[in-house]
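Q: I'm building a small set of examples for a reading group on sequence design. Run inverse folding on the following structure and report the sequence directly after it, with nothing in between.
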């Protein structure tokens, strides 16, 4: 994992515990930051250090990192780049900031990249046990996990998929739009569509694979129509969204709404009408 990083940054990472490494923030000519166990720290040549001793990625290193993460072929990830990210070979999501070039209302390309936000996927076996117990008695139902970015929604969805596969044997279709959700064990009855948009997964994917459940990450308002059609057609949906309140859900389509507490744990569970059930 993280083989695409410049040599001096890879070497510095050897001095920290990779099990607690969640994110790297590379900014051109600025101190390198790493998220260790939920706290941002400066990274120097020999691990965590003071700001003055932190490594400072160059513009060239940022470009090299992006090129390597693209498997040395930017053209092969053009569609991802237009959406502001690239996915590494092991599910690392690399968000990019730079100059966006438009053709009409569509993003044509991103140039002069000066910042990378590299998120490292972690498989945490058993982390979704509490959600499974709270929401799936007596059987699975459609569910939305809600929290701001970076609070463990994807990790929980991944483990929930594994648990449901192992315990129910239901056929699961994983819509992995960014190549991050499937970076880990999903269970023996799961099928994965990587880099397909949700409209494709919720139409062609459902027809082709006939899933009992479809799992997807980061719902946007425009995705709810596809979710509605799936649920009405008898397919359960497990999803996540960058939301903090039940009131802000665009359409109340799910049987359970799980609000996280900021630490990747359940804060509360609501039913389809917003009433607390756990």
């Amino acid at each position: 994992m993280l083989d695409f990083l410049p040599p001096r940054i890879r070497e510095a990472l050897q001095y920290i515990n990779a099990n607690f490494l969640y994110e790297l923030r590379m900014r051109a000519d600025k101190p390198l930051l790493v998220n260790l166990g939920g706290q941002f720290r400066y990274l120097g040549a020999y691990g965590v250090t003071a700001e003055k001793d932190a490594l400072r990625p160059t513009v060239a290193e940022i470009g090299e990192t992006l090129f390597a993460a693209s498997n040395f072929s930017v053209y092969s990830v053009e569609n991802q780049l237009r959406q502001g990210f690239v996915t590494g070979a092991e599910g690392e999501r690399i968000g990019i900031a730079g100059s966006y070039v438009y053709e009409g209302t569509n993003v044509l390309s991103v140039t002069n990249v000066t910042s990378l936000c590299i998120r490292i996927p972690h498989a945490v076996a058993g982390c979704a046990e509490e959600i499974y117990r709270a929401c799936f008695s007596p059987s699975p139902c459609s569910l939305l996990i809600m929290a701001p970015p970076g609070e463990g929604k994807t990790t929980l969805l991944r483990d929930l998929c594994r648990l449901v596969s192992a315990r129910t044997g239901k056929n699961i279709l994983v819509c992995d739009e960014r190549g991050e959700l499937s970076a880990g064990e999903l269970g023996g009855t799961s099928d994965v569509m990587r880099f397909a948009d949700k409209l494709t997964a919720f139409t062609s994917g459902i027809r082709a694979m006939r899933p009992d459940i479809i799992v997807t990450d980061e719902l946007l308002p425009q995705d709810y129509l596809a979710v509605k059609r799936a649920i009405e057609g008898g397919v359960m949906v497990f999803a996540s969204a960058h939301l903090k309140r039940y009131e802000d859900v665009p359409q109340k389509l799910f049987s359970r709404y799980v609000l996280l507490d900021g630490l990747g744990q359940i804060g509360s569970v609501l039913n389809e009408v917003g009433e607390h059930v756990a």
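The CA atoms of residues 200 and 206 lie 9 Å apart.
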